[in-house]
Amino acid sequence: MEGSNPVMVLDSDIPLPEERADRAGSDEIVIYEAFFSSGLREAVPSLIGEVAALLNVSPSQFSPSMWATLITIQALRELFSVEIGLDEIF
User: Fold this and answer.
1) What would the pLDDT profile of 3-55 be if each residue is shown by its tens digit?
2) Which superkingdom does the taxonomy of this entry point to (predicted)?
């Protein structure tokens, strides 16, 4: 459903002295608290998700220019209520 924000439950732990960010387990993701206060959000814009699914890649594999282009297209879609879909992009 567009506009809904699913709740994500995170299990957070204070690291032990011998634990380091570069030694996270395969089932762990290290995120510093400062990232959240700087504006980090977990949502991926819908157009980026659609393009990533179409190309069968992770959004993290997109170059910065690809991100900028897709974010611009998404903003135009939302701002002007223009239907710009994957057919128009590719």
Assistant:
1) 544 444 556 667 778 777 777 777 776 777 777 677 766 677 888 889 999 99
2) Eukaryota
How would you label 53-87 residue by residue, b for 16+ Cβ within 10 Å and e otherwise?
A: eeeeeebeebeeeeeeebeebbeeeeeeeeeeeee
CA distance 90 to 79: 21
Q: At what angle do helices 64-80 and 46-55 cross, to 10 degrees?
A: 130
DSSP state of 57: S
Structure tokens at 57: 């890649």
The predicted model scores a pTM of 0.51
CB 68 within 8 A of CB 42: no
